[in-house]
Amino acid sequence: MTTEAMHRRPRVMIIGGGFAGTHAAKALAKLPVNVTVVDRSNHFTFQPLLYQVGLAVLSPADIASPIRSILRHSTNTEVLMDEAVAFDLEGRRVRFRSGAEMSYDYLMLATGAAHSYFGHDEWEPLAPGLKTIEDAIEIRRRVLLAFELAEREMLETGSHHPLSFVIIGGGPTGVELAGAICDITRCYMRHDFRHIDPSKARVLLIEGEKHVLSNYPEELSIKAEEQLKALGAEVHTGLRVTEVKPGYIVAGGERIDSAVTLWAAGVAASPLGKLLGVPTDKRGCVLVNGTLNPQGHPEIFVCGDLAHFEQGGHQVPGVAQPAMQMGDHVARMIEADLNHRPRRPFHYFDKGDMATIGRLAAVAKVEWPFKARWSGFLAWIAWLTVHIYFLIGFRNRLAVLSQWIWSYFTFTYGVRLIYGSQTLPGWTDRSGADPYSGAESPAASASGRPSQTPSKPAAAD
Question: What is the pLDDT of residue 306?
Fold first, then answer.
């Protein structure tokens, strides 16, 4: 095909290389269009397994693949590492952080979600959330560093800060983090230290609703809570966090010490949605119609976490399954346009939900090919099978499966690497200053405990 013929083909610009974006790009490879995929990272991240990177079960490379590699066989597709910063809807152009501008015939936005601290953005440095590989590596640093600092304090002073891990939010991410921390403290690290006992660490899960996993059927929520408690976690429901401070939180008027605080309580849509200048909901999700378009813009599609799409009177959840289906549907709608056929409305086919809780523990709500409610070992096997199947690339599937098998039988993790600073909120450095608060720690001045010396951050793996 000549260059001139290629330029006459419609250009589809996809902003976001996640589940929705990659699925749309692969489906569009069969159509006479030019596709440009833009993402500020060069890789696709399998987000459902991010927590396993954060808790040192897997390496980042096990759950990430270069977007170029995923789309290598899509000969009509180009990939750009950049970030959209402005839109000209009338002129159908996008401006990028690099300063470049590009035109489009169709625009698809699928940039996902970010953390929401409900107006308390000052909490973010003290309680990181989990949305990216960088977040996972930071969580891994904090969790593993807490044990290292406690071991050092115990050796040097005969006492150490309380080893308590507080997870705020009892949704799937919070439940998975709590269960995984219980596993590493009670199974995988119990013989690795000489002066502290990791199994005595406290793991507290704080949830404001009546049950954890509040979007699941109540019987599964109760089962999940029972399994968490069996693993050793302390589950506190109906409790609202009102303060997050260095080394502690306040919930229900009570101060709870925390060596590491993790945030899993709220998400907000990517800020890119508001840049469009179209109606959004209170979380910043773009309100879309039955064909995934903002009102009055049939050339723009919004998918995944960024879309507020309702079906049966409820918003479709911002998880991987609907995002993949939306991406595929965008390709079908563009194909209908090219063939001068009417577009068909999007319908989300719910196959069910799963959440892992810990070693051999999970809950599963199965909707297809049959309806079932599972918990425990059977649900864990189902969760394992589904997540291995959907991992991008055979190498990743093999690597993850082999790592899980090794960890299961040997009770060891192979990715316990700490990068970057040796400081934690609420723990003081050797000068007695807490680098997260900017003030001297009263605990340090009273006890004389030494602490960690900050080091220059290293590159993450």
Answer: 96
